[in-house]
């Protein structure tokens, strides 16, 4: 039986001591089926049946390796953000002139634009979540969606009906309130908001680009926090909402560099979320010093110390040492461990094998067990 001291380190509610961001590598059979659907060679129903089969497989695998939070791997999506955002009322996808620029790599072209009043009347991902919830069993089904900041920061507004930013912020936050309630009504008790927009404020180069566009980085930071807090304002008490922040993740590359210092006080003192998944797998993310701003006793910080970008396993003692370093700023009881990002933020996936992916997740769980339990 565990001592009282060790019992305090066990978590029965999310985020968990050993957790994960959400997306998983798409199997070749699923990639092929999506290509066949795009060519009109199979129907949407046939594609969904293949998705169902593959989701069931990876859910069982997540259970088998010991994860407490279970995702569908985002297997029904091409992108971690566009698929959700373009199904909001008033948002449409379009073929952009170019893709998103990563370090020495560019994504396929895709964009979203605001063409009407933003709202949430229904959404195909509600049914996606219900399927996951139905096969999760006693495990916690985790839903991941982009934060409202991603629409604010990524969408084009040339055809938008909004002349007033306040009206846009009101409608966007209201749409997210409705979305959160809808997922809750479908059974969701663990929701994650994924957000790469904060990384723009961690990079001096990106802040200069914002200024060149006539934007004040301090005002953008305030807007980000405001939108997040408005979105989660009415969340049910028994629903955990976390936010994942990283610097881009496409084919094992990244977009930005820069530590959390410029946004730390906002992240750790102003945001009304239950947990923060933070990228800390390389020197691009800076050190743990910004954690000194964390004073909330009910905020969990999930340290993304294990990279999802390559397959080689980090030395366990190195990860433990880094957790110990972080605990100098935040009590160990408020820390957890995960990979720094998902394994496939887009359907292309990172440059490692599926077995290496599972090894990474096992590694996280083994280290978490040794540190906290």
UniProtKB/TrEMBL annotation:
InterPro entries assigned to the protein according to its UniProt record, in alphabetical order: Met_Synth_C/arc, UROD/MetE-like_sf
SUPFAM superfamilies: UROD/MetE-like (SSF51726)
GO molecular function, one term: 5-methyltetrahydropteroyltriglutamate-homocysteine S-methyltransferase activity
Pfam families: Meth_synt_2 (PF01717)
Gene Ontology terms describing biological process: methionine biosynthetic process
Residue ranges of domain Cobalamin-independent methionine synthase MetE C-terminal/archaeal in the record: 21-347
Stored NCBIfam families: PRK06520.1
This protein's name: Cobalamin-independent methionine synthase MetE C-terminal/archaeal domain-containing protein
Organism: Pullulanibacillus camelliae
Name of the encoding gene: yxjG
